[in-house]
Amino acid sequence: MPTTISIRRGLDLKIAGRPASKILEAPRPARTAVQPDDLRYFRPRLLVKEGDAVKAGTPLLEDKDDPRIVLVSPAGGTVASVHRGERRKILEVIIELAGEETFEEHGALDDDALQGLTREALTERLLKGGFWPLLRQRPFACVANPDTPPKAILVCATPQDDFDTDPDIVLRGQEKDFQSGLDLLAKLTDGTVFLGIGKNAQCPALTDAKGVETRRFAGPYPAGDPAVQIYYACPPKSGETVWYIRAQDLLALARFVKTGRYSTERVIALGGPAVKERQLFKTRVGASIESITDGRLEEGELRVVSGSVLSGRKVPRTGFVGLYDTAVFVLREGRERELLSFFMPGLNKYTTTNTYLGSFLGKSEYALDTNLRGSLRNFTQSGIYESVCPVDIWPEQTAKAVLAGDIEEMEQHGILDCVECGLCTFVCPSKIEVGSILRDGIDLIRKEG
After folding, report:
1. Kindly report the CA angle at 353 between 348 and 356, in degrees rounded to 5?
2. Where do runs of H (alpha helix) occur along 294-422?
3. How much is the pTM?
4. The domain that contains 215 carries what CATH number?
5. What is the per-residue pLDDT across 231-255, written as a single tens digit (0 to 9) for each?
6. Rounded Cα distance, 375 and 430, in Å
7. To the nearest whole number, what is the mean pLDDT of the chain?
8. Confidence of residue 345 (pLDDT cuts 50, 70, 90)
9. Kind plus residue range of the DSSP H or E element containing 85
10. Residue 360: what are its φ and ψ, rounded to 5°?
11. Residue 30 and residue 228: Cα distance in Å, rounded?
12. Distance from CA of residue 160 to its chain's centroid?
């Protein structure tokens, strides 16, 4: 019987637009993309040029600090363009799909060969195939270091939030490949492989998994976040690392190791208040946003978020889904200003602090937009951040230490335990980007070593 871990602090997001659970086939995208910013601390070196023909699995970018870490093409076709930003920073490499795709071949393995793989052979295969970046590590949420085995590995098989794809649905019928993935992970660590599942998970791939320690997680957002699950199931001590991987990524990794071909399949959830057809769509890694959202959004000025509602990345409608993302969330841009809004009772407004009457009416969902409902102010000593923080840190004091550049105080307050869920920013009465401040502190600690 799996141990159940109940996360008591957090916040259930009363946002309208949860996707349905049926999986539909999305149109084949004309283009896909690789975005190096998906990988933290990845310093890309371009390996191709515009007009080059590539196969699915062809390396496009390598890390200047460790050339073994590569980002590969998610499709067979042609390098359509390379978009750059300030100081010629590479933003994305766009691939135009060919009518008939070709794949880089790394050789298929039968069951005996899979069982006989050593850690070194498996690591080399994942590095060459471009699947190593799917393994990340805590702290810092960066690509796992292939030279240092982790204390443990956690497989996160829960949706990030209520708008994410639920692995309990996606993994049905995929039991053999998923178990193969779990068996492969066991080769990469001398420690334990943990499997985090939802409290109501029923898929046999999750409930009957072998060779792992299963933990059921219950509670409000962000109980489904892998960083939260690591904090409660297998927290790393100083000098240790814990690796983690999401369920769909593990499925793709296992298929690659077995077949020797890049696995392109990805199920993406489309939801949010501005979406007319909220559904799960089977598409491919790095798919264009247009291929998922075309004809399914409301009219007007909208914001598209790739990834989690509170911690995802804003992308244009002509953009692409991130490497680790399994959800696209769409809401309206809040441009309108309300006359004397401060004096209104707020019957239809969402509040986490009972500021409006709407909090007493028991409304279950709100069609939120991006309006801040206020202006930037100073920090207020209210304890509101601590009330929603799922881990034992002091977000306000930690953020102030970051602004002061005091690394020692940041670490004393537990900044490396921050799960970057975005709740501090969401509930902040002063409209401060607290999450961004904490992220800057984490980056500073890594930079300073």
Report:
1. 30
2. 384-388, 395-404, 407-412
3. 0.94
4. 3.40.50
5. 999 999 988 999 999 999 999 999 9
6. 7
7. 93
8. low
9. none
10. -95, -5
11. 37
12. 7
Instruction: Name the strand (E) or helix (H) holding 155.
Output: strand 152-157
Q: What are phi and psi of 293, to 5 degrees?
A: -100, -15
Is residue 310, in this structure, part of any structural domain at all? no
Would you state the structure tokens that stand for residue 160, as one six-digit string? 């990030």
Amino acid at 8: R
Higher local confidence (pLDDT), 347 or 197? 197
> What pairs with residue 366 in β-bridges?
15
Residue 344 domain-assigned? no
CA distance 70 to 92: 14
Both structure tokens of 9: 């602090």
Whether the per-residue pLDDT at 334 is higher than 90: the answer is: no
Q: Given pLDDT bands bounded at 50, 70 and 90, which one contains residue 354?
A: confident
Identify whether 272 is part of a domain: no
Same domain as 48, residue 182 = no
Report the pLDDT value the prediction gives residue 349, as an integer from 0 to 100.
77
Q: Are residues 171 and 213 in the same domain?
A: yes
Give the max Cα distance, the chain. Answer: 71
3-state secondary structure 44-82: EEECCCCCCEECECCEEEEECCCCCCEEECCCCEEEEEE
pLDDT score for 400: 93
3-state secondary structure of 434: helix
Bridge partner residues of 278 (DSSP): none
**Whole-number Cα distances in Å, 74 to 32, 65, 169, 386:** 7, 23, 24, 41
Encode pLDDT of 355-389 as tens digits.
766 666 667 788 888 988 778 888 877 889 999 99
In angstroms, the CA 413 to CA 401 distance is 9
Q: Is the peptide bond before 235 cis (omega within 30 degrees of 0)?
A: no
Tally: H helices and E strands in the chain = 13, 20
Total tally of structural domains belonging to the chain? 3
